[in-house]
Amino acid sequence: YGNSIVAAPEYKVVKQWERLLIPKGDGSENRSSGAVEYEDFVFCVTHLDHESVEARKKGVEIITQWALENYGKDKTHKPVFLVGDMNCISTEVTIANLEKNWKLISAKELTYPSDKPKKCIDYIFVLDNGVEVKAGESHAVTTSVNVDVSTVSDHCPIYCDVTFIKHN
């Protein structure tokens, strides 16, 4: 629900993974996580449940287990990014559980709702798998010269400039 990965054609796809189904709360939409491996990095996206803390916690467990099994320490030279609507503020246990294996690299700026941001529930993480990246500037995009941000989504986009650290 609500997941997609779009990249410029110069990013060559190595593997497109089947989506992972993750738990949802009662009455909620189906939830999933998607991942695409590119030549230099892996990009994962998710949209955790908005009702159930337990569903969010279990979703984090499933996504993290998949990431560690496939791209954990000594399994890759690529950074693994996880982005998405985590549907919780940064002080919730869901984020604490993510931070056991993922490093938060995005700003904790207000992202929802986009017309009058009131809370941060959208984040960018990188897997702690021994691959170094340097996180730079990060912001929620609340205005744009070319696009009325509030018409694109009910969330503000968030970005983080990342530099890949390559060791010989």
List the helices and strands and how they pair.
Layout (H helix, E strand, L loop, with lengths): L12 E4 L3 E3 L8 E8 L3 E6 L5 H19 L8 E6 L7 H6 L3 E3 L17 E6 L5 E8 L8 H4 L5 E7 L4
Parallel strand pairs: 4-5
Antiparallel strand pairs: 1-3, 2-3, 3-4, 5-7, 6-7, 8-9
3D architecture notes:
With 168 residues, the protein is an alpha+beta fold. It has helices spanning 53-71, 93-98, 149-152; strands at 13-16, 20-22, 31-38, 42-47, 80-85, 102-104, 122-127, 133-140, 158-164. A hairpin with an 8-residue loop joins strand 2 (20-22) and strand 3 (31-38). The radius of gyration is 16 Å and the shape is globular. The N and C termini lie far apart (40 Å). The mean pLDDT is 94.
Give a count of the beta strands, DSSP E runs of length 2 or more: 9
Main beta sheet, described?
A: 7 strands, mixed
Report the portion of residues in β strands. 25-35%
Order of helices and strands: EEEEHEHEEEHE
Helical fraction: 10-25%
**What is the residue-mean pLDDT, rounded to a whole number?**
94
Tally of alpha and pi helices: 3
Class inferred from helices and paired strands: alpha+beta
Gross morphology is globular
Q: Which radius of gyration do the C-alpha atoms yield? A: 16 Å
- The end-to-end distance, rounded to whole angstroms, is 40 Å
Poorly predicted regions: none
Note the main attributes of this structure:
single chain; 168 residues; 7-stranded mixed β-sheet; two-stranded antiparallel ribbon; 3 helices; globular
Quick overview of this protein structure:
The chain has three helices and nine strands; from the N terminus they run E-E-E-E-H-E-H-E-E-E-H-E. It has 168 residues and is α+β, with helices and mostly antiparallel strands. The chain is globular.
